[in-house]
């Protein structure tokens, strides 16, 4: 009996040890693998690591900046506290790792801060399946731009010069697959389409420009970076991957407020961002429904870049392009995007401009409300100097 009792106790102890080991080895949430010490290009990685959480930027494990210092309304600025900490450390390059749920705009702001610091040096982005060298230098000339369209697909288009959309060749769309178990997002075929576009139409271009989205998550952006890196390596390192400045994201950057004293009126960032000398997007007029004009304007503001691209594209065909358009949109109670968009242009014959505005409005994401809302927005495009041909 004594022998049996000893054997039973040994068996019980071994079982408890195995259960404890299993609990210890099973994480509650899958984390991205640690960096391997080398970039995908074979370069040795710098020792300094910047970790980007949902709201903070940590340098070597210590929080040194927050998202509140970067996103102020629609104004995007560089995380100065992080830049100062990097300069104080005299870091020669940084590896950036980010929570997959962090906003692309926040991560891009951190990247720009590192790249523009006095001693930031090289910037490497950990995509969780490879560390990729990226650049935050301003892209110039002709570039292949990659836009992340609402976390649903990626769009390839040529810009010549950067910021002005080239109509030839036409843009290419790549839909995404469902996310993987490790929370990565797949965009199958994107690297191949990038390589094809580059081989066929590069014509002296040197950059692939990754344009960040306003409110989309980092995980989709990380996939685009990986795909761009695969295309770059398949072509023999023939281009530089440039992360566009957050100021060039699909959201406007309002001018800094001008303080005129303690009695000055609050700065209206939205109104300032929606108007410029040759391009005006009016405040929304609610025809019927529950959603207020302020909520509609905020939604349009986040997608402002899409409307501005319509002007840039039209201006490329006709430098003195002028037009006025009324956009009528029906917003469902559930919010989100809508295809119920009607555009009337004046004078007639501006169909391409009207079609571009239709596509831009269909990409706007609206908040939910208590019922269907019908709203109207007016777009006015004047000559580059702000004048019109009408008397």
Task: Tell me about this structure.
With 391 residues, this protein is of the alpha+beta class. The protein has 2 domains: 31-249, Nucleotidyltransferase, domain 5 (2-Layer Sandwich); 271-381, TolA/TonB C-terminal domain (2-Layer Sandwich). The chain has 9 helices and 19 strands. It has helices at 2-25, 80-89, 104-115, 190-201, 218-234, 269-273, 293-302, 304-317, 351-362; strands at 49-52, 56-59, 62-66, 71-72, 75-76, 94-98, 123-126, 131-134, 143-149, 153-159, 172-175, 207-211, 240-243, 275-276, 279-281, 285-288, 323-331, 341-346, 373-381. The strands form 4 sheets. Strands 3-2-1-6-7-8 form a 6-stranded mixed β-sheet, covered by helices on one side. Helix 3 links the parallel strand 6 and strand 7. Residues 4-9, 11-35 and 250-276 have low confidence and may be disordered.
Overall shape: globular
CATH architecture verdict of the largest domain: 2-Layer Sandwich
Q: How many structural units, i.e. domains?
A: 2
CATH class of the largest domain: Alpha Beta
Tell me the helix content: 25-40%
Report, as a whole number of angstroms, the end-to-end distance.
Answer: 111 Å
Low-confidence sequence ranges: 4-9, 11-35, 250-276
CATH superfamily of the largest domain: YqgF/RNase H-like domain
Q: Give me the strand/helix succession.
A: HEEEEEHEHEEEEEHEHEHEEEHHEEHE
CATH topology term of the largest domain: Nucleotidyltransferase, domain 5
In round numbers, the mean pLDDT is 76
Helical segment count = 9
Instruction: Return the structural class.
Output: alpha+beta
Radius of gyration: 25 Å
**Order of strands across the main sheet:** 3-2-1-6-7-8
Largest sheet geometry: 6 strands, mixed
Question: What is the number of E strands?
Answer: 19
Q: Beta fraction of the residues?
A: 15-25%
């Amino acid at each position: 009996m004594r022998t049996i009792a000893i054997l039973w106790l040994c068996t019980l102890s071994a079982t408890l040890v195995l259960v404890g080991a299993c609990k210890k080895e099973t994480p509650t949430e899958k984390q991205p693998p640690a960096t391997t010490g080398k970039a995908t290009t074979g370069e040795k990685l710098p020792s300094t690591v910047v970790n980007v959480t949902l709201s903070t930027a940590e340098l070597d494990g210590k929080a040194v900046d927050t998202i509140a210092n970067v996103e102020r309304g629609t104004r995007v600025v560089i995380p100065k506290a992080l830049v100062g900490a990097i300069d104080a450390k005299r870091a020669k390059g940084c590896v950036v790792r980010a929570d997959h749920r962090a906003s692309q705009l926040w991560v891009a702001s951190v990247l720009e801060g590192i790249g523009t610091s006095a001693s930031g040096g090289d910037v490497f982005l950990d995509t969780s399946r490879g560390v990729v060298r990226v650049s935050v230098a301003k892209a110039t000339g002709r570039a292949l731009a990659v836009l992340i369209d609402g976390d649903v697909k990626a769009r390839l288009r040529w810009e010549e010069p950067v910021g002005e959309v080239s109509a030839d060749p036409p843009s290419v769309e790549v839909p995404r697959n469902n996310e993987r178990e490790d929370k990565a997002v797949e965009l199958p075929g994107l690297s191949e389409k990038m390589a094809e576009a580059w081989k066929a139409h590069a014509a002296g271009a040197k950059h692939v420009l990754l344009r960040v989205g306003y409110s989309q998550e980092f995980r989709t952006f990380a996939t685009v970076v990986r795909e761009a890196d695969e295309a770059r390596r398949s072509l023999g390192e023939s281009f530089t991957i440039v992360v566009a400045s957050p100021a060039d994201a699909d959201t406007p950057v309002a001018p800094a407020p001008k303080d005129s004293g303690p009695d000055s009126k609050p700065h209206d960032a939205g109104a300032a961002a929606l108007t410029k000398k040759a391009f005006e997007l009016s405040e929304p007029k609610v025809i019927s429904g529950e959603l207020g004009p302020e909520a509609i304007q905020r939604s349009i503001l986040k997608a402002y870049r899409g409307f501005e691209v319509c002007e840039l594209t039209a201006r490329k065909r006709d430098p003195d392009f002028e037009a006025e358009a009324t956009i009528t949109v029906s917003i469902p109670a559930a919010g989100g995007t809508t295809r119920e968009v009607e555009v009337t242009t004046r004078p007639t014959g501006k169909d391409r401009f009207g079609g571009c505005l239709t596509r831009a409005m269909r990409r706007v994401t609206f908040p939910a409300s208590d019922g269907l809302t019908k709203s109207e927005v007016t777009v006015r495009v004047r000559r580059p100097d702000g004048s019109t041909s009408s008397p």
